[in-house]
Write a structure and sequence with these properties.
Blueprint (H helix, E strand, L loop, with lengths): L1 H14 L4 E6 L15 H14 L8 E6 L10 E5 L3 E4 L3 H13 L10
Parallel strand pairs: 1-2
Antiparallel strand pairs: 1-3, 3-4
Helix pairs in contact: 2-3
């Protein structure tokens, strides 16, 4: 049975176009309420995408970094979510992004201090 699960896990990765998908909220609210874009999320999105491309992580069979509209967690923001892991992170700066990339994306370890 264990062999079947190992085989299935590999097959599932092969079948997926991306192994992980990072969605970074860049929403700007019109009503003046708190939002991720007020906290430089677009700048962080650009940094994250460029870093993942330069590290050759963003590719078919690898990861994808995408902009997201409102993820409805504005008061906790800025936020990102990584699928299929369903892990939500709050970040403050590029150092937090580097830690998420190095620990979560590359080594599959949740960054507990940033998890929401």
């Amino acid at each position: 049975m264990l062999i079947f699960f190992k085989y299935w896990a590999r097959l599932k990765i092969i079948m997926s176009y991306y192994t992980k998908h990072i969605f970074i909220c860049i929403n700007q609210r019109e009503d003046g309420k708190e939002c991720c874009n007020d906290k430089k999320s677009l700048e962080i999105f650009d940094y994250t995408k460029k870093k993942c491309i330069s590290m050759k992580l963003q590719k078919k069979g690898g990861i994808r970094v995408n902009k997201a509209g409102c993820l409805d967690r504005c008061s906790e923001g800025p936020v990102m979510v990584i699928y299929p892991d369903n892990i939500w992170y709050k970040y403050k700066d590029k150092n937090d992004i580097d830690e998420i990339i190095n620990k979560h994306i590359i080594n599959n370890k949740v960054v507990t201090k940033l998890k929401i």
